[in-house]
Amino acid sequence: MSSQTRFDTDVAIIGYGPGGVAAANVLGKLGVKTIAIERSKDIYSRARAVTVNDWTMRIFQDMGLAEKMKTIMDVTHSLRWLDYEGRELTSTPFPPGEFGHATSYAIYQPEMERVLREGAERYKSVSVKYGWETVTLDQDDDGVTVRIKNLETDEVETVRARYVLACDGGSSQTREQLGIKLIGDTLPVRWVVIDCRVKRWWPNRHMLTFWSDKKRPVVDIALSMGNHRWEFPLNPDETDADFQTHEQLWRLLNSLGVTENEVSIHQQAFYNHHVRFAERWREGRAFLCGDAAHLMPPWAGSGMQSCIRDTQNICLKLAEVLGGRLPESILDTYEIERAPDVDRYTQTSVGLGMIIKRELSDEQINAMLEAERASGELPAVLRPPHYQQGWLQKGEGSKEVVGKLLPQPRAANCRGLLGLLDDFIGEGIVLLGANVDPASKLTSAQRATWEELGARFVALRSVDQHAQADSDLIDIDGELIDWLDKHGVDVVAVRPDKIVLAASGNLNVPEDLAGR
Predict the structure, then answer these.
(1) Fewer CB under 10 Å: which end of the chain, C or N?
(2) Residue 271 to residue 232: CA distance in whole angstroms
(3) Where are the beta strands (DSSP E) in 83-215?
């Protein structure tokens, strides 16, 4: 097709679960014309994901939805491992977060998705075709023609888009149409998930509990809004048919001391754990996101969160490309950045599963936990993304801070208004200087190149200093200035997703962006 072909939309999103609706919010806020295609108008009723961390809440903050999200979520108190005798093997409180929010929140996924859907409805540039499914995708040099069918009337339409995001889950038909294979394993053990409504509090109900046992390890999770979940593995001689009635399910719950006095059973579901990856995440102008690209066990609570970060990553880059600010080649960094991060969380999840299923000895478990505590870092399950390559300045002189997620402290603007850092630095690329104007640290050529990308320059001042420009911000508790000092830098360039793009020592724009 000719480049003069009419486009119905800039981006077509296939699938409107958590990944698709997150993409719609990111694109909608940036004014990118978007059409989402979704089979069902109703939100999926089963609560699959159970948690979000502070770095996911920060994405919701960027969408303008964090405060509303907090009204339907509960801060996670702590994590513990018990055996069936009730002995505590180990426990850990959740430490304070460094990204402006509590480290971890318990969620009820259907309600979280409802807030995201309402958020996307704010944008005239976003429309959703409920009750339609994708039939075929045909790509050419300029775009993608998506053929869709109405599930009630069998009416067929085409949507002409510049790019496509496949957010249609682990059984993605889009992935199959693109000829992309899913590599890895589906684990043989079948699990039953029992969702309940709380009727009466029981001791330590608020603690995320792993019942560690070789035969019947259990995940015991307080969800938000008065919901609770248990996940049980089926034994080799058991099938789905053995747990279809409430009476059958009560036998499992009763084994943990849970009775009809404490909860009422809401629903149950069955599933297998997967460790699988798409062989590639991009085919031409189509990109796989979330479960369409990768499947991991649930132990680290990172499957849906990885999906949301996938969509934020590719959508921010698509917006820059569509706006003519970045070259199309930047889209190649999507998988380069996201795949290693997803693999890290997958391996963390597998390792947690080994602990929960008692595949390691108590001595091995204690040694692992002690090594983690001694490292001084957050537990692996709570560590934010840290990109090693991609849209980053990793050349000579670059610092370890490049690729890390910038902390988000309390801040104030020069007129004394207080808030969180992101609410003041806004969109696009920002160069931040610790008690210094970052522009003063650049050569004239560097400054011109950053300005060509639309970058802004902001000085971050200590509370005991005067603001010197209207753009200055104040680091109320000194946390970010201390963090920069610890990493040996006084200037950082920050991407729209708040990943450090470049830092003191090498403040050149990455070569693939310069001279575009």
Answers:
(1) N
(2) 10
(3) 88-93, 104-106, 126-130, 132-139, 144-150, 156-166, 182-198, 208-211
Q: What percent of the chain has pLDDT over 90?
A: 78
The conformational region for residue 80 under phi > 0 = left, psi -120 to 50 = alpha, else beta, is beta
What's the fold here for domain 9-74+106-182+275-358?
A: FAD/NAD(P)-binding domain (3.50.50)
Q: What is the largest CA-CA distance in the chain?
A: 74
In whole angstroms, what is the distance from residue 209 CA to residue 202 CA?
A: 13
Provide the 3-class DSSP secondary structure of residue 246: helix
Cβ–Cβ < 8 Å for 159, 146: yes
Decide if 2 contacts 94 (C-beta within 8 A).
no
185-273: what fold?
Answer: D-Amino Acid Oxidase; Chain A, domain 2 (3.30.9)
Does the domain at 387-503 match CATH 3.40.30? Answer given as yes
In which order are the strands placed within the sheet that holds 78-82?
88-93, 78-82, 208-211, 218-222, 227-233, 182-198, 263-278, 294-295
Block residue for tokens 């003191």:
504
How far apart, in whole angstroms, are the C-alpha atoms of residue 471 and residue 483?
Answer: 21
Q: Is residue 155 classed exposed, middle or buried when 0-12, 13-18 and 19+ CB atoms within 10 A define those classes?
A: exposed
Residue with tokens 């070259």: 327
**At 425, which amino acid appears?**
I
What is the rounded end-to-end Cα distance, in angstroms, of the chain? 26
Q: Which tokens in the block code for residue 468?
A: 């010197």
Q: Where are the domains of the chain?
A: 9-74+106-182+275-358, 185-273, 387-503
What number of residues does the chain have? 516
Asked whether the whole model's pTM tops 0.90, one would answer yes
Ranges under pLDDT 50 in the chain: 1-4, 515-516
The SS3 of residue 39 is coil
